[in-house]
Design brief:
Rossmann fold; about 450 residues; four-stranded mixed β-sheet; globular; binds nicotinamide-adenine-dinucleotide; Dihydrodipicolinate Reductase, domain 2; alpha/beta; 11 strands
Amino acid sequence: MTPPDRWIRSLKASRGSQTCAGELKLADSVRIAPAEGKLGVLTPGIGAVSTTFIAGVEAVKRGFGAPIGSLTQLATIRLGKRTEGRTPLIKDFVPLASIADLEFGGWDIFEDSAYEAARNAAVLDAAMLERVREPLEKIRPMEAVFDQDYVRRIHGPNVKESRTKMEKAEMLMDDIRRFQERTGVARTVMVWCGSTEVFHRVAEVHQTLKAFEAGLAKNDPEIAPSQIYAYAALKLGIPYVNGAPNLTTDTPALHDLARDSGIPICGKDFKTGQTFMKTLIAPGLKARMLGMSGWFSTNILGNRDGEVLDDPGSFRSKEETKLSVLGQILQSDLYPQLYGELYHSVRINYYPPRGDAKEGWDNIDIFGWLGYPMQIKVNFLCRDSILAAPLVLDLVLFIDLAHRAGMRGIQEWLSFYFKAPMHAPNVYPEHDIFIQLMKLKNTLRWMRGEDLITHLGLEYYD
Ligand SMILES: NC(=O)c1ccc[n+]([C@@H]2O[C@H](COP(=O)([O-])OP(=O)(O)OC[C@H]3O[C@@H](n4cnc5c(N)ncnc54)[C@H](O)[C@@H]3O)[C@@H](O)[C@H]2O)c1
């Protein structure tokens, strides 16, 4: 049975056997191939996020680091009724790859090993890095596919040269095959941890796979480096996660390629600091029907990501994903009286002394009963890559799970991790983090044939 048939059968089963009080009984569960062998993790970009993630995994493997912030490692999932007391760890409930089985590789425009890149990023202290120096030093970046028109502020020597973008895609596929042979991995996933590319819209060349492949051969300027990586991955049957706000797989051509080849994709832009806070606070204010007239967000950030975002083209990509959140959560079309006049603004300033320790300020102007105004101030002194690393781990493990479960195309259930979740064209994206979490956990229950939890709970009082 093909994956979509299985989906439909399973969904029909869930609808057909509705039981009491809104609980959906699944007659069937999804077949999931076991997580046998090693799992390769390839990251375009060996910078602050990817090295913090890799160093952290190596520390956890060696028993001197705790995977704090990771659902796959720490969270439990409730099964059945509240009276049943069944709350296994997620990692015991669904067959995830083990952390011990992860193997890393990647590309960067700089020649630094993952150890040197981590030292430069200065997220983790020298003592911690020394303890994982050996595995990190072994990770040497492969030559990148890079285009200065897409990332303007950085320049590096470790870049592929070739006549066409199609040749570059083939060179990436060769890199991937060599990595797979060298490490002996059974499966591979790719997570974009490279810089944010300049804002571009979907163009003619992105409309169909045929047009896209012709564009690769003709060096169409609308094809971004991240799309060449994604194309190479999807052609080799490798799931792709987009951690940046880049357009990448948000195009009909690459989306169709993923769906038609049975490969899961998800994105975009890890939801870490300020936007994470926004999706915590905004649903709460809206739930209480409190009005909002303004939300001003500003950040100072001194890492390489901050330097890239200092370019207006890259900032525009980030601004789009950061701004998209409030509109959907607050639904001003349904509540014009409360949110119709909202002024939402986001700023990022590059400020080198802070490095990766970003500081974000939010000023929220709200109003309550009879329109009386109030203010909320949030000052989040966060660590960007410390927040991002567990998200990368979860996404690696969940997208691999999705692939083994035969799920393909956009994985909306992973919206929880993204500022601008990819979604089907006929539905709006879900930004409320609590709905996203419910969607994620219900998808896991659905995969294992457990009852979906609606939180109706009337059966306890019958
Ligand atoms: N840290 C966070 O909290 C967070 C949150 C959301 C999104 N992101 C996004 O994740 C990405 C990585 O962030 P970071 O802090 O690690 O940045 P970083 O600058 O430290 O690392 C990015 C690396 O990508 C490399 N690179 C750029 N273009 C490349 C290409 N075409 N091929 C291969 N390598 C390339 C750069 O040389 C750099 O080393 C950025 O796009 C950032 O916006 C980060």
